[in-house]
Amino acid sequence: QSVVTQPPSASGTPGQRVTISCSGSNSNIGRNTVNWFKQLPGTAPQLLIYNNNQRPSGVPDRFSGSKSGTSASLAISGLQSEDEADYYCVAWDVSLNVWVFGGGTKLTVL
Amino acid sequence: EVQLVESGGGVVQPGGSLRLSCAASGFTLSSYWMSWVRQAPGKGLEWVANIKQDGSEKYYVGSVRGRFTISRENAKNSLYLQMNSLRVEDTAVYYCATTSGWSSGNYWGQGTLVTVSS
């Protein structure tokens, strides 16, 4: 069981807005910034959001991140079929001195 | 072109050892904290270990501490993971990745599969 929790699945129809939550504790999300990754089957993860809400160049502005207290969220607006993937949040844990990934959320575009 | 290329994976018996390598090109490895992240078949991502730019700090997830050793050779733009006393539960695809300087870019290798089986 991960110390950072995500819902195992989420879904939406094309054009919809979906959010994925990420819940941690005062030793990780509450103390440090959160990054989000997207992973397609058989490929390496791709950085979507860093420092809670910053997008790397090339990431569409349909993707946004936020953080409040010990929780963070990834929002995807204007859902597209190519958004179907696994999404992971991650934060540094100051008590364990490890990066802690959430368990991942499988997003299905209906 | 920016690339990270892992090598060294394979099949090993429980209790055996493997050394993974990660060769960087197109960017300066020495500018980044580097990590190894693994993914067991059908499972999520698990961070394994990281190392500071100059190698002076290293951290490990509890399940591998004392068995795995991360190291780097900046002059060769390379990262390593020495894995000893391997267990069946260490079976996974192992990725090397940059884990700092996020605004400058985040790079991952394609992964190398380690299978621990008798």
Summarize the structure.
Chain A is built from no helices and 9 strands. Chain A has strands spanning 9-12, 18-23, 34-39, 46-49, 63-68, 71-76, 85-93, 98-101, 105-109.
Summarize the structure in words.
- The complex is a heterodimer of chains A (110) and B (118).
- Chain A is mainly β and 110 residues long.
- Chain A contains no helices and 9 strands.
- In chain A, strands 1, 3, 4, 7, 8 and 9 form a 6-stranded mixed beta sheet that branches.
- The mean pLDDT of chain A is 96.
- Chain B has 118 residues and is mainly β.
- Chain B is built from no helices and 10 strands.
- Chain B has a 6-stranded mixed beta sheet with strand order 2-10-9-4-5-6, with no helix packed on it. In chain B, strands 1-3-8-7 form a 4-stranded antiparallel beta sheet, with no helix packed on it.
- The N and C termini of chain B lie far apart (39 Å).
- The model of chain B has no long low-confidence stretch (mean pLDDT 96).
Structural class of chain B: mainly beta
Look at the structure and give the mean pLDDT of chain B. 96
Shape of chain A: globular
Count the DSSP helices of chain B.
0
Radius of gyration of chain B: 13 Å
Classify the oligomer: heterodimer
Distance between the termini of chain B: 39 Å
Summarize the biggest pleated sheet of chain A.
6 strands, mixed
The portion of residues forming beta strands of chain B comes to: over 45%
Give the low-confidence spans of chain B: none
Topology pattern of chain A, helix = H, strand = E: EEEEEEEEE
Average pLDDT over all residues of chain A: 96
Extended strand count of chain A: 9
- What structural class do you assign from the helix and strand content of chain A? mainly beta
